[in-house]
Design a protein that fits this description.
Elements: E1 7-12, H1 18-29, E2 32-35, H2 36-48, E3 60-61, E4 66-67, H3 70-77, H4 85-98, H5 106-119, E5 125-128, H6 134-147, E6 153-158, H7 161-169, E7 171-174, E8 180-182, E9 203-204, H8 211-234, E10 239-243, H9 251-262
Parallel strand pairs: 1-5, 1-6, 2-5, 6-10
Antiparallel strand pairs: 3-4, 7-8, 7-9
Bound molecules: adenosine monophosphate.
Adenosine monophosphate binds next to helix 2 and helix 4.
């Protein structure tokens, strides 16, 4: 049934446990992960290097419900001549939304997604965290139709809000290699230290992993992503729901649970 897979879409609340399920699909089908969250964190990192203090709302004009002009932002940040000025401004805008737990506007997200998808020639991707709104879902379905590529299936990782809150507040991530930790279930070997021997690795809490931001993300999922899932189902993309919480967690069990739901033979020797 999943013979010549082109693209999977993995959806779920932020912190629902998407990554281990994405890893299963990557290994199983030789796909590449395309995460809009990772794209935003890349730009956010470029902006963070400037160490700008204070509220980012000073760059936002509520009367226009948009940011002040890019030229004005560059001027205030003193980066007009910087070779990465455009990317830094994008990082500022992404940070403004990400830290509040709000979705980045569709216009920005769709453009960044399309260029990353194009780099993969629109095939061989596990789309992680995209689409998240009906507009993004429409954009993706149109794009796939125009490029003549398949969206093989939606895999929704389901998890309860209460469990997600506990897991996410304890979550830590290596800024450099992306390795995930949890202060209770998988603490880093020493505070701030990654298992990777790379000396630039640094384990931190994501700037958006706080309770206010998390509650907002859960609300965004309920009001914007649930309707997007319905849109994709209506568009005829096969839909599968996998559990994000396994009572007895192990990589083999995650793999088995994904394989079982997709009707694939599990390659794990024992679970
Ligand atoms: P994630 O790593 O997928 O949890 O994403 C982190 C944050 O990036 C989200 O809370 C949003 O602020 C932003 N983000 C990621 N993907 C999208 C998307 N498809 N649409 C809008 N915002 C997004």
């Amino acid at each position: 049934m999943f013979e010549k897979v082109q693209n999977f879409i993995v959806m779920g609340k932020s912190g629902s446990g998407k990554q281990p399920r994405v890893d299963v699909l990557i290994r199983r089908f030789g796909l590449k992960q395309l995460s809009t969250g990772d794209i935003f964190r890349h730009y956010l990192g470029l902006f963070n290097v400037l160490n700008v203090e204070g509220e980012l709302s000073v760059f936002f004009d509520p009367t226009k419900d948009d940011f002040i002009a890019d030229a004005e932002i560059k001027d205030r940040l003193n980066i007009t001549a910087h070779e990465n000025a455009e990317a830094i401004v994008l990082g500022l805008k992404a940070k403004y939304y990400v830290n509040q737990g709000r979705f980045v506007p569709d216009r920005i997200t769709n453009a960044l997604f399309e260029s990353a998808f194009q780099a993969l020639e629109f095939k061989g991707a596990v789309l992680d965290g995209f689409p998240r709104t009906v507009e993004q879902a429409q954009f993706l379905v149109d794009l796939a139709n125009r490029k003549g590529v398949k969206l093989d299936a939606i895999v929704l990782v389901e998890n309860e809000d209460e469990l997600i809150i506990g897991r996410t507040l304890g979550r830590r991530i290596c800024k450099s290699c992306g390795e995930l930790y949890h202060m209770e279930f998988r603490p880093p070997p020493n505070p701030g230290e990654c298992v990777s021997p790379n000396p630039v690795c640094d384990v931190v809490q994501r700037s958006d992993d706080n309770i206010e931001s998390l509650k907002k993300r859960l609300e965004e999922f309920r009001t914007k992503t649930r309707p997007a899932i319905e849109y994709l189902k209506q568009a005829g993309i096969p839909f599968y729901s996998v559990p994000g919480n396994l009572p007895d967690y192990s990589p083999a069990r995650v793999e088995a649970s994904v394989c079982e739901i997709l009707g694939l033979a599990s390659t794990s020797p024992s679970v």
